[in-house]
Specification:
It is a single chain. This protein has 147 residues and is α/β, with parallel strands linked by helices. It has one domain: 3-Layer(aba) Sandwich (Rossmann fold), CATH 3.40.50.300. The protein has helices at residues 6-17, 36-46, 84-88, 92-95, 111-114, and strands at 2-3, 25-29, 61-64, 73-77, 100-104, 118-124, 130-135. The protein has a seven-stranded mixed sheet. A hairpin with an 8-residue loop joins strand 3 and strand 4. The N and C termini lie close together (12 Å).
Length: 147
């Protein structure tokens, strides 16, 4: 799928908000500037966030709770995490019980985390558009909007 501009990334995030639920993990992979945070912003806006979501690059984990959003969401940016052992210290396993985890750079969590995650990968085309590829696990097959 080709996403032509930031508005398309935000629109995809809004569509994901309609199918995501607590306990899910959505992984967003791609180079810096590919639009991962734009997808996250669209999802959070559709879930009710009134202000623009900041990138969690510095904080690593940015939590959102009702009434700010319809259900708890953790927007996680693992760019500065070196390995899966560091990610364990973030407490994401407990949070996943009742929150949606929206994770940029999810590969730094380790493969075990990604078994049932919807993994979206963005690459930048020569034209500047973004190519989206998805790994859709069984848990998402009935919900994924592009199947």
């Amino acid at each position: 799928m080709i996403l032509d501009g930031e508005a398309a990334n935000i629109s995809l995030g809004r569509r994901l908000a309609g199918i995501a639920r607590p306990g899910d993990l959505i992984g967003l992979t791609g180079p810096l500037g590919a639009g991962k945070t734009s997808i996250a912003r669209g999802l959070l806006a559709e879930l009710g966030l009134a202000d623009e979501a900041p990138s969690p690059s510095f904080a690593i984990v940015q939590p959102y709770d009702p009434p700010e959003v319809r259900f708890p969401v953790l927007h996680v940016d693992l760019y500065r995490i070196e390995d899966a052992a560091e990610a364990e210290e973030l407490g994401l396993e407990d949070a996943r019980i009742d929150s949606l985890l929206l994770v940029e750079w999810p590969e730094r969590l380790g493969e075990a985390w990604l078994a049932d995650a919807l993994c979206l990968t963005l690459s930048i085309e020569d034209s500047g558009a973004r190519r989206l590829t998805a790994r859709v696990p069984e848990a998402w097959r009935g919900r994924w909007p592009l199947t």
